[in-house]
Amino acid sequence: MVDDERANRIFRALADTTRRDIVRRTLTAEASISELAGEYDMSFAAVQKHVAVLEAAELVARTPRGRERIIRGNPETIRHARELLGAFEQLWRARIDRLDAFLAEPDPN
Amino acid sequence: MVDDERANRIFRALADTTRRDIVRRTLTAEASISELAGEYDMSFAAVQKHVAVLEAAELVARTPRGRERIIRGNPETIRHARELLGAFEQLWRARIDRLDAFLAEPDPN
DNA sequence: CATTTGTGCAACCATTTGGTTGTACGTTAC
DNA sequence: GTAACGTACAACCAAATGGTTGCACAAATG
């Protein structure tokens, strides 16, 4: 339930081109919000909101430095998301394994 | 641009607890829409819409069988999503590598 | 044939999302 | 001290989302 909400926030945050780009940039090099805002064709406030969504999902961390806020991508959360998907693939593999076992089963007749 | 739209659809589709559960179930064992609808406390039409979102993201395939539609989870798309996240992690690793190289660099003075 | 079952789809509604502008406020720079 | 910069936040708006009910229709069942 709690974990579900977290997964919802993470995937929701990743479901936007601008936000994925912000994560990419800040994973490569930290940046202030206004630096980020300069990269996109939208208002400062809009970029600020995208950063807030990413921060709520813990995909990004925001730390003050003087009058600006430095944004850094958080590889931990990316990793967590990847593990969630890995668990899905595992379910599928388990199904294949059951199917294989069934096909290998000797015919009882 | 086209690829971005696809990523948007995939992550958006995964950003909902019910939809992730449908993917889990149909990855484990195929099911009809009404079978799925029976599992959740919402209308048939609501579940139908969730399946449509998943199908548009190619997280699920819908094939007719008699009067019912059989839903199967699509492991290929899960894998694709995981690879997208893997690319993000790779960016981060590249940054660490650059940092290591910088620290290892002999002081020119 | 009549009924039930499974699906598709439209219309509607409340809430959320993604954008805008405007204002306020702390921090640097002159 | 004043001006410029970086941020925060509120109010507003259009569009998308996630749900509902109702109706139509094709396939299985009596």
UniProtKB/TrEMBL annotation, chains A, B:
Residues 1-93 form the HTH arsR-type domain. The keyword DNA-binding applies. GO terms for molecular function: DNA binding; DNA-binding transcription factor activity. Keywords: DNA-binding. Gene3D superfamilies: Winged helix-like DNA-binding domain superfamily/Winged helix DNA-binding domain. PANTHER family: SLL0088 PROTEIN, TRANSCRIPTIONAL REGULATORY PROTEIN. NCBIfam families: HTH_metalloreg. This is DNA-binding transcriptional ArsR family regulator. The lineage of its organism: Bacteria, Bacillati, Actinomycetota, Actinomycetes, Micrococcales.
